[in-house]
Amino acid sequence: MSLTPDAFLAILAGVVIGAAGLVPLLWRQRSRMRALVAQSRELIARARTDALTGLPGRAAFEEHLRMTLSRARRGGSQVAVLVVELEDLRAINQELGSAAGDQLLRMVAERLGLGLRLEDQVARIASGGFAVLQDGGDQPEAAARMARRLASLLAAPYTLRGQPVPCATAIGVVVGDPMEATADSLMRSAELALARARAEGKGIAFLDPVMDGALQGKRQLEVELRESAALKAMTLHWQPVFSLPGRCLLGCEALLRWQHPTRGLLPAAEFMTIAEATGLIVPLCRWTLHVACREAANWPTPLSVAVNIAPTQFGHDDVVAAVRDALASSGLAPERLELEVTEGLLARNTGIVLSQIEGLRALGVKVVLDDFGAGAASLAHLMRFPLDRLKLDRGFTATLATDERALAVTEAVCALSRRLGIEACASGVETEAELARLSALGFGRAQGFLLGHPQPAAALCDLMRAGATRAPLGDVTAA
């Protein structure tokens, strides 16, 4: 049967009209499907993220741990997992209410962030539990340092409902061989170590008995440090800083020393990590600041004093108020005080740190970026943070004569600082050849054993009375 032209056109018109009605229906269905997919993704993201702290949840942490282990197997590095538990959270919830407990959890999350590198991962894995993943490093020592650092950050009281509230913590640590460990086994081992820390009242515990024994040795030193701090068994030594190329004395860096009852005079490197773990870092740094300012106020003008500010102070201390008090009580002119901060401090919580650094400079003091080139700071931080000086890490100075790349970086740092209006200082200078090269590159000041070892106040006074432009070599160990 054949169709007439009119019949064919009628059928075609019907098909077109039907399709026209179907298109909006299909479009609505497509829109609904997109909305459902977006909603599903949002629900998955919420399930993987802790709504209270904004940190990843346990599932996301374990997935990241599996990926890190896979990468570590190829690279030959080790992985550490630390599990942190707030032991007093339940009591705080009962006494102050759940809102105070929620506020505590958010504050703990912020403090943990202060103690991590950019490549580390932190997550909330339980009601009062957090987990930290440390990828690489000189394990197991790196994990021990991190555990002490986190314990220090969490040791200071929290301001809840207008009152200071302490919260005890326990930390379990495990270091895994990526060729043998799995994400599940590492989490189980870290939680077993946490159980040991809780049961034995250690605060920090390794699953590895050897590392745990070393950690207990540190604990003994902690007890001695607490007693020494109470007895004020601390003193300051001073390392001179000289101008280049004239070698005129510009000031000194204050370096903390501990007069240990059996081990003798200990440099700060041997006990500052313990001070962080015990929570003594803030009072020790405040003491150093006040004594340094008081001593420097008696020096000839315009000699300056440099004081190291620990990152922990920016976490739970009013640094600006502490500096203001030290200046007021000592009478030291603000422009004669230099505060040295680390690269790691600039890499995290930049908004908070930026406001504090701006507050310090508003007082008239100078801010120095210490050990530049050894940490996590980026060039962007040089533009964002108001700095007065860069102190190049001593590792570059030591390799100037043997490593062309170190020389190129050193030259570039000096040129960059000059363009930014930031003075460059070299540290760790030990030979005349190093000093001559640094001076030729344009460094305006330097310090190191060639120019002067850290020395007690009496030796420094002799140097100043003699009007020397170059300090004699001493026999005191380095900072």
Structure explained in plain terms:
With 479 residues, the chain is of the alpha/beta class. The chain is built from 18 helices and 16 strands. It has 2 domains: 150 residues, 2-Layer Sandwich (Alpha-Beta Plaits), CATH 3.30.70.270; 245 residues, TIM Barrel (Alpha-Beta Barrel), CATH 3.20.20. The protein has an 8-stranded mixed barrel with strand order 8-9-11-12-13-14-15-16, surrounded by 5 helices. It has a 5-stranded mixed β-sheet with strand order 2-3-1-6-7, sandwiched between helices. The protein has a two-stranded antiparallel sheet with strand order 4-5. Helix 7 packs across helix 8, helix 9 runs parallel beside helix 11 and helix 11 packs parallel to helix 13. The longest helix has 44 residues. The protein is globular. The termini are far apart.
Features:
alpha/beta, eight-stranded mixed β-barrel, Alpha-Beta Plaits, TIM Barrel, 479 residues, 18 helices
Helix content: 40-55%
Protein structure class: alpha/beta
Distance between the termini: 105 Å
Low-confidence stretches: 39-44, 471-479
Summarize the structure.
The chain has helices at 5-48, 58-75, 89-96, 98-114, 141-155, 183-200, 209-230, 272-278, 281-296, 311-316, 319-330, 343-346, 350-363, 379-384, 394-398, 404-420, 432-441, 457-466; strands at 79-86, 121-126, 129-135, 158-160, 163-165, 169-176, 204-206, 234-243, 249-260, 264-267, 304-308, 337-341, 366-372, 389-392, 423-426, 445-446. With 479 residues, the protein is of the alpha/beta class.
